[in-house]
From TrEMBL:
Residues 106-356 form the GS catalytic domain. Residues 19-99 form the GS beta-grasp domain. PROSITE patterns: GLNA_1, GLNA_ATP, GS_BETA_GRASP, GS_CATALYTIC. This is Glutamine synthetase. Its EC number is 6.3.1.2. Belongs to the glutamine synthetase family. GO terms for molecular function: ATP binding; glutamine synthetase activity. One of its GO terms (biological process) is glutamine biosynthetic process. InterPro entries: Gln_synt_N, Gln_synt_N_sf, Gln_synth/guanido_kin_cat_dom, Gln_synth_cat_dom, Gln_synth_gly_rich_site, Gln_synth_N_conserv_site, Glutamine_Synthetase. It catalyses: L-glutamate + NH4(+) + ATP = L-glutamine + ADP + phosphate + H(+). Keywords: ATP-binding, Ligase, Nucleotide-binding.
Length: 356
């Protein structure tokens, strides 16, 4: 094992200029991350300088067997925290050989919204709070829970410290540092209300980069839990009953909201979000109806609401934003398994482009 670790940690730059690029994409379910690696002749920092690649889409649920080739277009580069050195992680999206985006390529439509002149002028910022649950590999029961049983009721676990309150901190801290190394703008982590559940925050990120960074952060977390022998779940309600679900609260602001008088812009944006509540809910993650019940710090899925400092509302406006008369708001509806390309672009489309 010692030799294996030595080989894994070899520094390629000692002997060659070649690097390893791990191409990453989203599979057919919309949540399964896939990746494969290739050798490149030297260091690359611009995704447009990277070669396109292909994969077998019939094995990912994205193409028929008789016409299975899907093409990967490199879109964003991050440093590889696993191989280190000049090696890179490459976030890609997927196209047919003719150059058309495949149906599961949500980045393509998001990029169109984020390059719209009105959206570019407003410079939308996002801060996404990604919740997730760590599960025991053999039982698929939350980490730290007695097998077939339940821990003490919720209360001591949120931001808790101690062996009977915090489960999986080594994974969480490893992920935190790996994201910082990779260049993900991860801004914090905390233990969540349900034991075995955690959250990391990414942002502020501008436009399409918010989606790229969340997907890479998810990929890094998947890899770390793979090493640790723990299963990662983005299920919005992994345990039924009196236990909190998992969301991906999305904090949002535009240039107009951040400037003097922005509170009026925020209120108008919230009004527009209310008018398209059903459309947003439909795009905010599968199984969200199990989470948005009006309990456990959620609003009922069928009712749109907003309030200042209200964690039981669809949209929460912070006390500082109310006091300063400018700032941001938080959309608390997205589920933990949402697609960040869909959610971020939809919020921009509704609040900036859409005219009721």
């Amino acid at each position: 094992m010692s030799l294996l670790n030595d080989l894994i940690n070899l520094n390629l730059s000692d002997t060659t200029e070649k690097i390893i690029a791990e191409y990453i994409w989203i599979g057919g379910s919309g949540m399964d991350l896939r990746s494969k690696a290739r050798t490149l002749p030297g260091a690359v920092t611009d995704p447009s300088k990277l070669p396109k690649w292909n994969y077998d889409g019939s094995s990912t649920g994205q193409a028929p067997g008789e016409d299975s080739e899907v093409i990967l277009y490199p879109q964003a580069i991050f440093k590889d925290p696993f191989r280190k050195g000049n090696n890179i992680l490459v976030m890609c999206d997927a196209y047919t050989p003719a150059g058309d985006p495949i149906p599961t390529n949500k980045r393509f439509d998001a990029a169109k919204i984020f390059t719209h002149p009105d959206v570019v002028a407003q410079e939308p910022w996002y801060g996404i709070e990604q919740e997730y649950t760590l599960l025991q590999k053999d039982t698929r029961w939350p980490l730290g829970w007695p097998v077939g049983g339940f821990p003490r009721p919720q209360g001591p676990y949120y931001c808790g410290v101690g062996a009977d309150k915090s489960f999986g901190r080594d994974i969480v801290d490893s992920h935190y540092k790996a994201c910082l190394y990779a260049g993900v703008n991860i801004s914090g982590i905390n233990g969540e209300v349900m034991p075995g559940q955690w959250e990391f925050q990414v942002g502020p990120s501008v436009g399409i980069s918010a989606g790229d960074q969340i997907w890479i952060a998810r990929y890094i977390l998947e890899r770390i839990t793979e090493i640790a022998g723990v299963v990662l779940s983005f299920d919005p309600k992994p345990i039924p009953g009196d236990w909190n679900g998992a969301g991906a609260h999305t904090n949002y602001s535009t240039k107009s909201m951040r400037n003097y008088g922005g509170i009026d812009v925020i209120k108008k944006a919230i009004e527009k979000l209310g008018l398209r509540h059903k459309e947003h809910i439909a795009a905010y993650g599968e199984g969200n109806e199990r989470r948005l019940t009006g309990r456990h710090e959620t609003a009922d899925i069928n009712t749109f609401s907003w309030g200042v400092a209200n964690r039981g509302a669809s949209i929460r406006v912070g006390r500082d934003t109310e006091k300063d008369g400018k700032g941001y708001f938080e959309d608390r509806r997205p589920a933990s398994n949402m697609d960040p390309y869909v959610v971020t672009s939809m919020i921009a489309d509704t609040t900036i482009i859409w005219k009721p």
